[in-house]
Structure formats: C-alpha cells, structure tokens
Amino acid sequence: MSHEISAAGPSLRAGLGRWKLLGLGLILPGAVLVLWQIFGQLGYISDLLFPTPLVILKAFAGLAQSGDLWDHFRISAVRALAGFALGGSLGLLFGILVGLFAKVEKMFDPTLQMIRMIPSLAVVPLFILWFGIGEESKILLIAKGAFFPLYINTYLGIRNVDNKWFEVTRVLGYSRIQQIRRLVIPAALPNILLGTRLSIGLSWLGLVVAELIASTSGVGYMMSDARQFADTPVVFVGIIVFAAAGLITDYIVRLGERRLLRWKESYSR
Amino acid sequence: MAETLLNITALSKSFETAKGRVEALHKVDLNIREGEFITVIGPSGCGKSTLLRIIAGLDGQYSGTITLGGQNITGPGIDKGFIFQEHRLFPWLTVEKNIAADLSLRDPEVRRKVDELIELVKLRGFEKAYPKELSGGMAQRVAIARALLRNPRVLLLDEPFGALDAFTRAHMQDVLLDIWRRNQTTMIFVTHDIDEAVFLANRVVILKPRPGQIKSIVPIDLPYPRKKTTSSFQELRLRVLKLLDSLDELELTDGAGI
What we know:
The complex is a heterodimer.
Chain A: H1 2-42, H2 53-66, H3 68-100, H4 102-117, H5 120-131, H6 135-159, H7 163-171, H8 176-213, H9 219-228, H10 232-260
Helix pairs in contact in A: 2-10, 3-4, 3-6, 3-8, 3-9, 5-6, 6-8, 8-9, 8-10, 9-10
Chain B: E1 4-17, E2 20-33, E3 37-41, H1 48-56, E4 63-68, E5 71-72, E6 80-83, H2 95-100, H3 108-120, H4 136-148, E7 154-158, H5 166-183, E8 186-191, H6 194-200, E9 203-208, E10 213-219, H7 231-254
Parallel strand pairs in B: 3-8, 3-9, 6-7, 7-8
Antiparallel strand pairs in B: 1-2, 1-4, 4-5, 9-10
Helix pairs in contact in B: 6-7
Transmembrane segments (chain A): 21-39, 80-102, 114-133, 139-158, 202-222, 234-253
Subcellular location (chain A): Cell membrane
GO biological process, one term (chain A): alkanesulfonate transmembrane transport
C-alpha cells in the first residue's frame, strides 16, 4: 500500500506542480485585466486610450465575424513567412559557408556586418523607392531582419565545433563532405535552432514595421487605419494578434527543438 | 612468432614551444608483431601519447620511418583504430548509430556486424540509448566497438580507462582482453598504471622523459587469464616499478622539471 503511494506520488505531484506554475503565471495578467475592466466601467480611465477588455473582445469578435481579420492576418502571415523563408535560408547558407571556409569569411563577413548595423527603419525609404510599396519591399525588409540571427548563430555554432570531434572523424576516415554532413551540421544544430527562433521573432517585427509604414492590407495596415479613425479597440486587437502569432510560431520551433535536441543533457526525454 | 606488423625506426619528434624546441621523442626503435598486445608506460612528458598519435597519423612532421604492414603511414585512417581517453562519441547519435558512424545501418552487412559488436562489448539493450544515458565504462565500450567495426589492423588506445573508477577499470581490462583473444587485433595501449600495463601486455615498453626514449622493454610471459595476486605477477610488477623508479632518480639528478 505504502509502496503504491510512493511510486505514484512524485509523478502526480509533478503534474500538479506544472498546472500550479501555469496558474501562478496567470495571476498577474488576470488581475490587471479585471482591474482594467472595473476601472474602465467606473470611468476612472479614458475609454478612448484604454477601451475595456470586453470592448476589445467585442471588436475582435466583430472583425472575426466579418472575415476582415482573417483576410488581413492571412496576408500578413504570408508576408512574414515569405520574408523569413528568404532571409532565413540565405542566413543559414551564408552562416554555413562563412563558418566553414576562412576565405569566404574574409570575403563576406565585413560587408554583412556593415549591413547588419544599418537599422531596418533607415532603409525603408530606399526600399520603397526601389521596389515601390508592393509586396517586394515588405518581404525584402522582413528578410533583412530574419537573415542576421540565423547567419550569426549558424556561423558561431560551426566555429565552436571542438577540434577533438574532427580528430574522431579523421580517425574514422570521413570525407570532407561527411565531416560537414555528419559532424558540423549536427553539432551546430542547437545554435541553428536558436537562430531560427530569433529570426522568426524578427520576421514578425519587420512585418509590423513594413505594414505600419506603407501598406494597403495586412494586420499592420488594419492597425494604422484604425489609429487614423481613433478606433483604439482595433489597435489593441492588432497587438493581440501579433503577440499570439509570435508566441505560436515560437512554440512550434521549440517543439521541433525538443525533438531534434533530445540527445542534449538539458533536454529531458 | 608472427611477422612484424608495425615497424618504427629512429623516430624523433620535436615541438616548437614558447620556451624553444622541445624534443618529445628521440630515436625510438620498436618492432610490433601481428596480434601482439603492447602496453606503453612512463611518467608524464615521456611522449607516450605523442608516439601513439604519430602511429595513428594524427601528428605529422617527425623524422624516422614508421611502416604498418610494410606501408608508410601517411595519415589517419580506419586501418588504425584509435580510442581516446574520453569516449568522444557523437552525443546526437544513439549507441548503434555511433558504432555505425558513416556506415548505414540499413546495409544488412553493417547491421549484422554492429549487432555482433554490441554483443561483444556487452551492450545488448542499449542500442537505442544516447551517450548521455551511458556510464563512462559503457561509453568507452561503444567507442571500442566503433573502432572494431572498421576491422583495424592495429588498435591504438590512449589511456582509455584513465577516467574510470577502479572496479570499472578492472572490468574493462577483462572486456578488452576478451576482445583481443577473440579478434586477435594488435593492441598498443598507453597507460600510467603499472598494474594495468603488466596485466594486459605481452610486452611492456617503458619510456623515459626528456627526451622521450625507450628505457627498456619487459616481456610478460604469464599465461592469460592472469591474476594480479600471484607472486609471479607481483615479481614482474616490481621489476617494472623499479625501472620506473630509477627514472625518478634520473630526473632528480638532472634537476629538470622541479
């Protein structure tokens, strides 16, 4: 009897603990929302600047029902994804080449670091002049942001592969290509995945910049349009949509991380 | 006796350091026969690891000649298996994939040999485990299996059990002797443990430091399996110990390294 309890105890407690911790994290935002709603209804805070949570919810429901929200979101998501795909894959490619070959590093890294230092906002006018306010300028702006985290982290991951592994591959008779495929890439994978997460985050960021500044569609446009008509609840809806989208994409990458990095000490099974 | 597998003639090697040239090995001559078990022992700085790395082809730029089966050694390769002090398994691969390494487990021939080796190093049931889930001794057994899969002509072991506790170490010595008896792979085993050196070897090579040179070679004519408690074992152990002790005195009179 006592055996059963002690056997079931830890896992049960661990399960409860997880929900408790989640609940702990919800106390603060929950309390803020409740107080916000109460003070809003009592008229203590401006409903123009801070529409109450229920009003925002209603705006959300209205936009969702009319299909506007979905249309804008779909356009935004495609832009963010396209920009990330372009910038991220180039970042990965250059990170691998620069990480592997000292000559390529000498040739490209200084230029790339220079471009990295230019703030995205500063190139917006130029991008609009070059590519118009169509999709190209937005996707390229997002790609510029998504490029660097993947580039830098891939490069670092490859440079940090310990020489003792290379000795092993030499003793095992690996070819140069096998060394890259079977040693360098898997060893750099934790860094590459970290870079991916940061790149996705910057993709959403770049999207907002692009859409707020010059756009006729997308969630960012929806927000800047609402701002012009002082439709604050819609601005809040946009913020929530971006936050949720960022959180969900990050969660997806973390799921992949947990699967791919099962072998690491810090990831339990 | 079997024929010569590895021939080392007048091998010298020096390193450039901040303090100038240091001669790690000086005119080393050694002949190793097919199927022999050689242990190399000596105080730190005697160049025993350097000797092993040169045989493996990991270190170049030496003078003298080394031939394996009559061929000059030009670089590392699968004909010279190497076991490092740390297991150096790939942490992202399971036990069986680590053993297969660049070979595909989908190849039935590789599959069969990997299964055989897992049996040989007594790791059945751990095929799908990751290195982080293994103990030090188990991981080192995987490393040995990885080297053996490639049918090396010689297995080079650089203090492979140095990081293990005494019990695991004794067990690993038995496992290694068992593998040697079955596969007849030529072994060159570097250690700083006198018991280990005498227990395993046909011949114990004693190196002296500064510069690294062969001080003497002690043949161990005890039948296997050996017992560390027998008087004949202890006699040989004492002989090796005395030879190593005389090195200490040499060092003291030189005043070097103190």
